[in-house]
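User: I need a structural model of Cobalamin (Vitamin B12) biosynthesis CbiX protein from Halorubrum hochstenium ATCC 700873 for a docking pre-check later this week. Nothing fancy, just the predicted structure tokens so I can convert them on my end. Input:
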Amino acid sequence: MQSLVIVAHGSHLNPESSAPTYDHADTIRATGAFDEVRTGFWKEEPHFREVLRTVEGDEVYVVPLFVSEGYFTEQVIPRELRLDGWDVSQWGSDGLSADQATLVAEDIDREVHYCGPVGTHRAMTDVIVRRAESVTDDPDVGDDFGLAVVGHGTERNENSAKAIEYHADRIAERDRFDEVKALYMDEDPEVDDLPEHFESDDVVLVPLFIADGYHTQEDIPEDVGLCEDHTEGYDVPETVDGTRIWYAGAVGTEPLMADVVLERAADAGAALGTALDDVRETTRVATGD
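Assistant: Understood. Predicted structure tokens for Cobalamin (Vitamin B12) biosynthesis CbiX protein:
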């Protein structure tokens, strides 16, 4: 019996924070690739500490719905899941290459395949591009457009910026968009000055966040100048200093994100059948297809 557990941060304050996790779980559940699909949270129920007790499978795959490697993926989640013998060196990661580690969860006495976060997986690059397609309603968007991949950035976790730069570089290599830039909220180059970083008249802004919350719904729109007060709303696109900005909102809300979760599980040895192809097809942008 094959089980998938998706773990995410969640929020006591924002009930919408967990919505993407539930949506992606539903998408994966519909493929039938796993006998059961569970969700667990740090700030909501079921808690990380409890979720494995709800799982019946003898092959358990845990995928963290987090953007980068760091405190939660390296300390909090393994500790709360009680993964016996966990040591971050088992990943042998440079901040981007965490893959999977197979350990025994002490309280259920079963092996668990603990995967790296979705945000650093190569498939996330395609989700960012799909997000640009979704917000512009154009499956061929690219020519005469710039793309801003935006992250939080923080001196406390250098890996936060690595994920942003990794995906921005991969997209730039495809030569699809005229310009691709990695911008940050708390580091240079800052998203506040977005029009100064682009020559393109049109720029798609995709925040590399899992869920829409304070940063994506309030901070970024106001800092970029899409609005003075987020409660008053803004248009998409919105023109700021002569640049039309297509604000996409959190990348983690894009339906194709379910594909990245599946990719992580597949890399850890899960048997998926046609699930990957099914998810890619069912979450495609319809316009122009």
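Before docking, keep this in mind: The CA atoms of residues 40 and 46 lie 5 Å apart.
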